[in-house]
Amino acid sequence: MTDTIFSSQPAPAALARNALKAAAQLWFVVATAGLWMFTFYIIAYFIVPIIQNGLGSLANTHLPKGFVPGDGVGNLAVGVHVFLAALVIGGGPLQLIPQIRDRFPRIHRWYGRIYMVTAVLISLAGLYMIWMRGGAFGNTVQHIGTSVDGVLIILFGAMAWRTAMARNFTAHRRWALRLFMAVNAVWFLRLGYRFWAFVNDGSLGNMEVLFNILSYAQYLVPLAILELYFIAQTRGGVGGRFAMAGGLVAVTMVMAIGIYSATTGMWLPRLS
Ligand code: HEM
Question: Which residues span the membrane (predicted)?
């Protein structure tokens, strides 16, 4: 099978396809390691204390309004938000591994449904925390940026679901990947400012401007790169595929620095 594919294509074309595939796999492996690190932090910093001591333990976190005495609904929204966050951030990459998808299609289908519903619930809780409860980090520009992500998650989730039900798997794959990027935007945001701190000797500079930009870039940049990847895959040509492969390797290096800096400069120190 592999021989047929390789022998039926001119050498540069096959090489370009393989380079693009290898670059995407490298991106995925590094992203999965970083997402699991974030999941470990969410479990250890939020979930274990909530299980042990209830929602009151949110008072001991860095969240500006993690726990407010008497605000049962608001405290619950934060608790639900972080519990479900671990489920989508940690489990999401498993949905994209072809071997798991092909060998355990029922698990893929069931977890896919859970993932989509969970992502929508997190977004609704997040929108409630920002616009009704108030007191979240950031200014209105940033709140609108994050809220647009919440709306995109709901939209992409609906499209991924619809295309799966219609058994249009080419479209389903694309919408599911867009959903994956939008769901992980909160993680990209953290990598973004930790990367910035890393290359600026630990300083974030003008934090307001940085966060205004990152509140939108957290999903616009990954979604734009994803669209370029789709184009390179379907009609990129040899040059386009090599360029995309190189771009993905560069993006992966930036991401790896962000993961390293977020882990050592933020997540692990909060756990110690
Ligand atoms: C599915 C995607 C999302 C995930 C996985 C997620 C995950 C998280 C996590 C892990 C935290 C804890 C922060 C930390 O310790 O670093 C958090 C906090 C928070 N999230 Fe989300 N989130 C998502 C989407 C959203 C959306 C769409 C909104 C708003 C529309 C939102 C609003 C908030 C707010 C207000 C906080 C509290 C921190 C603060 O006061 O700013 N989240 N989220």
Answer: 26-52, 72-94, 114-132, 144-163, 175-193, 213-230, 242-262
